[in-house]
Amino acid sequence: MSAPDDVTLVGFAELSATVVRARLLAAHERFWDVETRPLHHPVWFDQFGGFGALARSADGEDVGYLLGVVTADRLAYLHLLAVRDDRRRTGLGRRLVAWFDDLSRNTGARVVQAVTWPEDTAAVALHTALGASAHLAQDRAGPGQHRLVLTRSLAR
Ligand SMILES: CC(C)(COP(=O)(O)OP(=O)(O)OC[C@H]1O[C@@H](n2cnc3c(N)ncnc32)[C@H](O)[C@@H]1OP(=O)(O)O)[C@@H](O)C(=O)NCCC(=O)NCCS
């Protein structure tokens, strides 16, 4: 299915990052099946907000978002990506990733990387569909807390 036309992507730099962060945290359960609030540290909105994007419907609702950063060694790190539960499988996740890819390429990035839970089938499917290769990082988030590192080249 293609993305509904009513959705617009807006860079966090054009928004009030603090207000958006509070709204997204208040709606956390619409975006996530697992607890991710601690991963929404203000630094991702205030200092790295220039790399983030919010997907808004025509009626002004937050329906998806992406947080990330490009590092000094040209790695585009996609920190969090979420689409609201009623808007999934419409191409919005793919659209947010494409937005981040473009910004990252323009910032000089060569590789994009995301880290997710091995059991997050939707995220794994999305990134592998885009061409990412997966590597299981044992204990990455603590003892017994394995994560999947998904890495993809940013071809020009
Ligand atoms: C992962 C997530 C962002 C995907 O967003 P989405 O808007 O539904 O994804 P898209 O519609 O752009 O899907 C793109 C492709 O990804 C794959 N995909 C996405 N969700 C899938 C699912 N549930 N099962 C299988 N494949 C899936 C498909 O290949 C899909 O292409 P298709 O619809 O043409 O078959 C969304 O499921 C989500 O927000 N999940 C909860 C938060 C989360 O786990 N985020 C990832 C960790 S950072």
UniProtKB/TrEMBL annotation:
One of its GO terms (molecular function) is acyltransferase activity, transferring groups other than amino-acyl groups. Residues 18-155 form the N-acetyltransferase domain. InterPro entries: Acyl_CoA_acyltransferase (IPR016181), GNAT_dom (IPR000182). Gene3D superfamilies: 3.40.630.30. Keywords: Transferase. Pfam families: Acetyltransf_1. It comes from the Bacteria. This is GCN5-related N-acetyltransferase.
